[in-house]
Amino acid sequence: MSGAAVRPGERSSEEGGTPPPERPPFLLDFFPLEEANETRLARFFEGLREGRLLTTRCLKDGSLAWPPRTVCPKCHATALEWIDLPRSGRIYAFSAVLAGAPLGMEADVPFAVGLVDLDGAPLRLFGRIVGAPWERLAIDQPVTVEPFDLPDGRVFYRFRASS
Ligand SMILES: [Zn+2]
User: Where are the domains of the chain?
Assistant: First the structure.
């Protein structure tokens, strides 16, 4: 019997292999789980790794969903297709986080978050806005959607404003 404490899902050092990267406690983790064995939306994250912004469209009624779904929110159909979204848009609204940042983002304060209307798609996305200090952001300012890598190997998206 080993004396080393091993948390569920972790390998002990005696089993060999590399320990998994550190993740914040699940309920405080701002970013979703991304692997195919963790979510049926893994294709979305694969798309980000390819530089694409994907979402789902219902094959029955044609409605677009954001975020991507496994069931159509309007008609409950499960036959959905993945489609590419535009990667440019304009700021609809924004705010600055000056205190109380989510776990792992404390060192980034102050930073901006906002709602972005995609060009040519009836979707409004929420996310972090980088590329310019929050004091220099403006309503209707153009931004691009930018995938970025998290330290633990996951990927997510953010918006980049031209400075
Ligand atoms: Zn539908």
Answer: 26-84, 88-161
